[in-house]
Design goal:
Blueprint lengths: L1 E5 L4 H12 L3 E6 L14 E4 L7 H8 L3 E4 L6 H6 L1 H21 L4 E7 L22 H20 L2 E7 L1 E3 L11 H11 L4 E3 L5 E2 L1 E3 H13 L13 E4 L5 E2 H12 L6 E3 L14 H7 L7 H14 L2
Parallel strand pairs: 1-2, 1-4, 2-3, 4-5, 5-6, 6-11, 7-10, 8-13
Antiparallel strand pairs: 9-12
Helix pairs in contact: 1-7, 2-4, 4-5, 6-8, 6-10, 8-10
Length: 313
């Protein structure tokens, strides 16, 4: 395949690029390096330093002539979305529109979009399925949900297949602890430097933590799938990418304490604005449609993540 990966110098994107190149695909990365790094760029991949909302995106995609576009570039900080919702929407909604229109112009056959569990908001019942109500409680979740609608608006009439992959809480090596880095990266960074990890709220809140390699495999399998991903119906192109297993933040912290060999104190702080109390997503649809399953359990994933952070002390 010829594949364009937006955000391909970032945490998830760089792992995806390595997997695609290893599988024989020709890959072009589009990344503005606002959060990504050239250190993550595969030497065999093409690279264009571009903003997905900029004027050169369409020509870049036409030049790459991709079979598949994987759109991972995004504004991912819930805090930033609360402080500057217009910026959040410009990147996540209008950026997605620009990628979709460029994919049509480049005659791509499929677009995969990194959506989020944040589109669901506070769940009425668990586990969340693709048919569950979508009522995001923060601007970030609203922008991701609106972007899903933009894809349908632009791609369906053009006959381009697409999927909205709703990622659960992704963690693993290369994730940054700064800014809106995931809680695993934040804990690992503080534990490896001798700092004090802080749990927001009681720690009884649950999340569906998924290892980055499983997310990468979901993207690869969706890209290679020979059927149609954008199925009929309102939730047709939506797929949860998750483990289906809830883990409390307190349990996560204790698992990390062991893996990081951390003997210090773990403190509790104020709850974070916009956080839901419980979240776990059913991955059954992805399994039934394109055969994907998460295979890395939490202790194994945390162990690999801890080793990566400890090597960089």
């Amino acid at each position: 395949m010829r594949v364009v990966v937006t955000g391909g110098a970032g945490f998830i994107g760089s792992g995806l690029v390595y997997a695609l190149v290893s599988g024989g695909s020709e890959v072009t990365i589009i990344d503005d390096l606002s959060t990504g790094s050239m250190d993550n760029v595969h030497p065999s991949a093409g690279f264009r330093r571009l903003d997905v909302t900029g004027p050169d995106l369409k020509d870049a995609l036409i030049g790459a002539a991709p079979d598949v576009v994987v759109h991972l570039a995004a504004q991912v900080s819930v805090t930033v979305s609360l402080e500057d919702p217009e910026f959040d929407r410009r990147v996540n909604v209008e950026g997605t529109r620009a990628v979709a229109e460029a994919a049509v112009a480049a005659r791509a056959g499929r677009v995969l979009f990194a959506s989020s569990a944040a589109v669901y908001g506070d769940p009425a019942e668990l586990p969340l399925t693709e048919e569950s109500p979508t009522a995001p409680v923060v601007p970030y979740g609203r922008s991701k949900l609106e972007a899903e609608g933009v894809l349908s608006e632009v791609l369906r009439p053009a006959g381009v297949d697409f999927a909205c992959l709703r990622f659960a809480n992704v963690y693993g090596p290369r994730q940054k602890a700064e800014g809106e880095g995931g809680v695993v990266a934040q804990f690992a960074s503080r534990m490896s430097s001798g700092g004090t990890p802080v749990i927001n709220g009681t720690g009884r809140q649950t999340r569906d933590f998924i290892f980055v390699a499983d997310v990468v495999n979901a993207c690869v399998q969706a890209a290679e799938f020979e059927g149609v991903l954008a199925l009929p119906g309102a939730s047709g192109p939506a797929y949860n990418v998750s483990t289906g297993t809830p883990t409390s933040v307190n349990m996560l912290a204790e698992t990390m304490r062991v893996a990081m060999r951390f003997g210090g104190t773990i403190e509790h702080g104020d709850p974070r604005s916009g956080d839901v109390e419980e979240s776990v997503l059913s991955p059954a649809k992805a399994a039934s449609v394109f055969g994907w399953h998460a295979v890395v359990d939490l202790p194994t994933g945390i162990g690999g993540t801890a080793a990566w952070f400890l090597q960089r002390r």
